[in-house]
Amino acid sequence: MAKLREAESSELERLLEEHLEELDVPAVRQVMRNPFVTTRVTEILLAQSRLVGYYEIRRDLAGHPKTPRVNALRLVSTLYWRDLVQLAREIRTPPAVRRGAELQLVSRLAGLGAGEKRSIARLGGPGVIAQLRRDSDPKVIEALLENPRLTEGSLLPMVTSETTKAEVLAVVARDKRWGIRYPVRQALCKNPRTPAVTTLPLLPMLKKRDLAAVTKDRRLPAAVRKRAELLLGGNR
Q1: Smallest Cα–Cα separation from 119: which of 107, 130, 132?
Q2: What is the pLDDT of residue 214?
Q3: How far is residue 122's CA from residue 31's CA, in Å, rounded to a whole number?
Q4: By the 8 A CB rule, do 136 and 128 touch?
Q5: DSSP count for the chain of H helices, then E strands
Q6: DSSP 220
Q7: How far out from the chain centre does Cα 113 lie?
Q8: Whole-angstrom distance between the N-terminal and C-terminal Cα of the chain?
Q9: pLDDT per position as a tens digit, 173-223
Q10: 159-197 as b/e: b if 16+ CB within 10 A
């Protein structure tokens, strides 16, 4: 079995055929690390229900670029969320499989606990971000704001929405990375759901035209509009 990791394609296929009954999880994982794995090799393994019954083998096959897409996507649906996150982030994973892993994650989010959502929020891709930005738990949003794949374009719909909870908007305003961005500050100041105590410190950083818009927006708290008027008068 020591040859399984180093054998070239034709020899690897021959070894598999000859030793199928002897293969165990460590041996198959050695095969999957072999750079000469072919589609035929993955098909041989997929045909062995005894081997595919092991979680580790399904996980390795799901993410391998030589596994036929249909089979890989079928295996993806059997994986735990932590492995789905890793699969969706792995550059070597074929794009269709990465997308399948992300869709699986999105479909399972509603049934996960807050701690699990926070872990996913820190690492998830665009599909996960689009779903979790609607979450009402401020702790989940805090984790989402740490995600390096979060963009201003994907954050602003949440900040501008009047259905976003006040506590969530306050979390965004306090964030060191996102709270300093002008479009985010502007959106926070114009959202009537943003608590006045959060909005007031942001107003002095707005441009005149945006301050003027705040003074005219009757949806905003009177204290916010009054402060904007005073700042605008002082800047004239």
Answers
A1: 132
A2: 96
A3: 32
A4: no
A5: 17, 0
A6: S
A7: 16
A8: 81
A9: 999 999 999 999 999 999 999 999 999 999 999 999 999 999 999 999 999
A10: bbbeebebebbbbbbebeebbebeebbbbbbbbebbeee
CA–CA dist 212, 232 (Å, integer): 7
What does each C-alpha distance from 189 to 164, 196, 200, 231 come to in angstroms?
A: 14, 9, 8, 14
CA-to-CA separations, 49 to 37, 52, 70, 105, 187, in angstroms, rounded: 19, 5, 16, 25, 55
- In single-letter form, the type of residue at position 202 comes to L
Residue 38 token pair: 């072919």
Q: For CA atoms 214, 220, 164, 180, give the dihedral sign.
A: positive
Q: How far apart are CA 10 and CA 205, in angstroms?
A: 67
Taking a C-beta distance cutoff of 8 angstroms, is the pair 87, 97 a contact? yes
Q: What does the chain come to in residues? A: 236
Q: Which of 119, 135, 56 is nearest to 82 (CA)?
A: 119
- What CA–CA distances, in Å, run from 181 to 174, 175, 186? 11, 10, 9
CA atoms within 13 A on the CB side of 134: 7
Give the rounded percent of residues in the chain with a pLDDT score beyond 90.
85
What pTM was estimated for this model as a whole?
0.85
Return the amino acid letter for 29: R
Residue 2: the pLDDT is 64
